[in-house]
Specification:
alpha+beta, Alpha-D-Glucose-1,6-Bisphosphate, Chain A, domain 4, 2 domains, 7-stranded antiparallel β-sheet, 7 strands, globular, disordered C terminus, Slowmo/Ups
Length: 210
């Protein structure tokens, strides 16, 4: 049994900008789990399509109940193969990724198709499909549900990372930076309030015993 998932995304940037950002999207604040990226091979076809294969190393913390099925040295990392083809004539980009680590436990295949949005030529739409499967007897359904939930979370981070890189490429202030600034200020305010409260509480206790 295979769990299938499909969703659509929209980036308010041109197809050319998205293609450039695709190769520059690591690192970004939403991809701290991506440790390394290596090009295995790259070639241009007679029809001027760019074909690439990359190896990605990612952290992949498994839930405790799943760790018992993994070797200790493999429980916190995963290797991902990413194939891609960019067609400048059709103005499409298609990627296919799949894990080569823990594949017997859980296999996740993802296919993304990038094309110009038919309603707005300055935007890019993404069709994302995923197939999640597991052959672990008695646990396949639970593992697939876990994989699907993690995949959906990953999609959200991927889109935010894309938007971050695109904004940075265009010299804009990425929304993540603004959010981090607001969070930091809120944290400083909270800490200051906490220290003031502790000081007030300390004085209050002294008054009770004087």
């Amino acid at each position: 049994m295979v769990k299938y998932f499909c969703c659509a995304g929209l980036l308010k940037n041109t197809w050319d900008q998205v293609c450039v950002a695709f190769w520059q999207r690591y690192p970004n604040p939403y991809s701290n789990h991506v440790l390394t990226e290596d090009i295995i091979f790259r070639e241009v076809t007679p029809t001027n399509c760019l074909i690439s294969r990359r190896l990605l190393t990612k952290t992949s913390r498994a839930p405790r109940w799943m760790e018992r099925y993994l070797p200790k040295h493999m429980a916190s990392s995963a290797y991902i193969i990413e194939d891609s083809i960019v067609d400048p004539q059709k103005r499409t980009m298609t990627t296919l990724t799949w894990n080569i680590s823990h594949a017997r436990l859980m296999s996740v295949e993802e296919r993304c198709h990038y094309r110009i949005n038919p309603e707005n030529g300055s935007w890019t739409e993404i069709k994302r499909e995923a197939w999640i499967s597991s052959n672990v007897y008695g646990l396949s359904r639970a593992i697939q549900e876990f994989g699907l939930a993690r995949f959906k979370t990953g999609v959200t981070k991927t889109m935010k990372g894309f938007e971050y890189v695109l904004a940075k490429m265009q010299g804009e202030t990425p929304s993540r930076t603004l959010a981090e600034t607001a969070t930091e200020r809120a944290r400083e305010t909270a800490l200051a309030a906490k220290e003031k409260a502790k000081d007030l509480a300390s004085h209050a206790q002294k008054k009770q015993y004087v």
